[in-house]
């Protein structure tokens, strides 16, 4: 099945590789960017400021499916490319502006400046692609190759940013770090989606060599109009079960009830990301509590069209719940209780987030070693440790008007409610 790329996870990491292979093998192995001169100078500061100040509409699921089902006509594909060429620089400039607004000591951290340079590089490359050349499919293909490179450049952003912020934990408070990261990572969802949407539309509209995975017929770019949440839950459970086996030598049981047959138009990589993170938490709690009680995932569809009520997915575990003193930290980036540590970005400085939630601080080295295990494990996948799972999942859920809520019965277990709105498919 076709998978776009939202985050660097093994389950979700295939499209960019496939697209790159596609482009590199096209035309007998030569790059389609032949004749394209990479830019040597970065955009001037005032140009970044001007672009960042431009109006930007919020991306909606409706926007993503506005061209209808692929294959798109050449005209529609070119329109999609032009819109992406126009608005991606605005989004990239806003990220650059936000990074520049961080205190100098933070921006000059090697990890954070690496992310900053990636944005500058991507903006430079896209601005060097002449917007008025997008009048034929050869140029559109070159542009799609460039988008693919840009998506690839940014695929490892989260662990690098996380490491940078941990290294800067003495120079920022948890609230400031979480505020920046939340804003930045939410905006990044839209930037990435914009590029991936055009790549997906291109793959489904322009003939591809047989070796290339193209989106299935139910896809409109990154949106699967016939997404079955139960299938995603099954595949994520199998993946998370494998990680558990590696880490703990055991795999909790999981049952799906409610309405497992429903179909729902949504972006599979987003749902996959969220479900993987929520199952990692539930599996870990279940194993650490040493309970044989299965995790129950209930799928419920609200009456009416998917863009009205949408769906609710409840993940229920009996893994002992979350201690009250930890509960108020669970939405902070970097807060984790993995490996016995209880820590958050900035804890080396302030030691607590608020009066109700006075967390004992780790020594910095403990936090870093937890990070090293977890971030290194982003490649091989780890059960927990980075402290990004819940806040990032909520960011994905809220991006298109959904929500993520956690309820804990400490001493018993945890219920997580994921609500997602779909998009009406009338007229498609
Ligand atoms: N189902 C659950 N049962 C018990 N504790 C939970 C559960 N879900 C989350 N938590 C608590 O919330 C903390 C933060 O969760 P979060 O998913 O954000 O980070 P993490 O799991 O530690 O690391 P990762 O970034 O790998 O997800 C966890 O460390 C854990 O203490
Ligand atoms: Mg987690």
* Global morphology: globular
Our Rg estimate from Cα atoms comes to 22 Å
CATH architecture type of the largest domain: Up-down Bundle
Q: Give me the number of helical elements.
A: 14
Order of helices and strands: HHHHHHHHHEEHEEHEEHHHEE
Q: Please state the structural category.
A: alpha+beta
Poorly predicted ranges (pLDDT <50, ≥5 residues)?
1-36, 346-356, 358-364, 376-380
What does this structure look like?
This protein is α+β, with helices and mostly antiparallel strands. The protein has 2 domains: 47-216, Alpha-ketoacid/pyruvate dehydrogenase kinase, N-terminal domain (Butyryl-CoA Dehydrogenase, subunit A, domain 3, Up-down Bundle); 226-335 and 368-421, Histidine kinase-like ATPase, C-terminal domain (Heat Shock Protein 90), CATH 3.30.565.10. Helices cover 48% and strands 10% of the residues. It has helices at residues 14-25, 45-53, 61-64, 74-100, 104-107, 110-127, 137-153, 157-167, 174-205, 229-248, 268-288, 324-327, 364-380, 389-399; strands at 219-220, 223-227, 254-258, 264-266, 295-301, 311-317, 403-409, 413-420. A 5-stranded mixed beta sheet has the order 3-5-6-8-7. A 3-stranded antiparallel beta sheet has the order 1-2-4. Strand 7 (403-409) and strand 8 (413-420) form a beta hairpin. Helix 4 packs antiparallel against helix 6 and helix 8 runs antiparallel to helix 13. The longest helix has 32 residues, at 174-205. The radius of gyration is 22 Å and the shape is globular. The model is unreliable at 1-36, 346-356, 358-364 and 376-380 (pLDDT under 50). The structure holds adenosine-5'-triphosphate and magnesium ion. Adenosine-5'-triphosphate binds next to helix 11 and helix 14. One of its GO terms (cellular component) is mitochondrial matrix. InterPro entries: AK/P_DHK_N_sf, BCDHK/PDK_N, BCKD/PDK, HATPase_C_sf, HATPase_dom, His_kinase_dom, Sig_transdc_His_kin-like_C. Pfam families: BCDHK_Adom3, HATPase_c. Keywords: ATP-binding, Kinase, Mitochondrion, Nucleotide-binding, Phosphoprotein, Transferase, Transit peptide. Belongs to the PDK/BCKDK protein kinase family.
């Amino acid at each position: 099945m076709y998978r776009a790329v939202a985050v660097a996870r093994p389950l979700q990491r295939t499209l960019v590789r496939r697209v790159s292979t596609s482009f590199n093998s096209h035309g007998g192995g030569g790059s389609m960017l032949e004749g394209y001169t990479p830019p040597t100078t970065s955009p001037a500061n005032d140009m970044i400021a001007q672009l960042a100040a431009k109006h930007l509409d919020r991306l909606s699921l409706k926007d993503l499916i506005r061209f209808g089902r692929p294959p798109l006509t050449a005209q529609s594909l070119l329109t999609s490319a032009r819109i992406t060429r126009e608005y991606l620089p605005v989004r990239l400039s806003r990220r650059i502006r936000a990074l520049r607004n961080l205190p100098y000591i933070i921006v000059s951290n090697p990890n954070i400046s690496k992310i900053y340079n990636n944005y500058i590089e991507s903006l430079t490359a896209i601005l060097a692609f002449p917007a008025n050349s997008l009048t034929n499919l050869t140029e559109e293909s070159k542009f799609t190759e460039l988008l693919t490179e840009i998506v690839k450049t940014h695929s490892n952003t989260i662990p690098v940013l996380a490491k940078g912020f941990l290294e800067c934990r003495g120079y920022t408070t948890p609230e400031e770090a979480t505020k920046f990261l939340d804003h930045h990572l939410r905006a990044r969802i839209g930037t990435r989606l914009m590029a991936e949407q055009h790549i997906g539309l291109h793959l489904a509209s322009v003939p591809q060599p047989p070796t290339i995975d193209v989106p299935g017929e139910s896809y409109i770019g990154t949106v699967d109009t016939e997404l079955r949440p139960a299938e995603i839950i099954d595949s994520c459970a199998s993946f998370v079960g494998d990680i558990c086996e590696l880490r703990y030598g055991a795999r909790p049981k999981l049952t799906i009830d409610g309405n497992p047959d429903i179909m729902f138009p949504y972006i599979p990589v987003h749902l996959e990301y969220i479900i993987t993170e929520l199952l990692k938490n539930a599996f870990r709690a279940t194993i650490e509590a040493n309970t044989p009680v299965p995790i129950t995932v209930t799928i419920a569809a609200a009456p009416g069209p998917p863009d009205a009520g949408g769906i609710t997915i409840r993940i229920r575990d009996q893994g002992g719940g979350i201690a009250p003193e930890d509960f108020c930290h669970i939405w902070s980036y970097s807060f984790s209780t993995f490996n016995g540590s209880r820590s958050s970005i900035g804890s080396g400085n302030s030691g607590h987030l608020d009066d109700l939630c006075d967390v004992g601080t780790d020594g910095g080295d403990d936090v870093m070693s937890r990070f090293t295990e977890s971030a290194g494990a982003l490649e091989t996948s780890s059960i927990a440790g980075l402290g990004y799972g819940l806040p990032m999942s909520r960011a994905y859920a809220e991006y298109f008007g959904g929500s993520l809520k956690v309820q804990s019965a400490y001493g018993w277990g945890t219920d997580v409610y994921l609500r997602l709105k779909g998009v009406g498919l009338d007229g498609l």
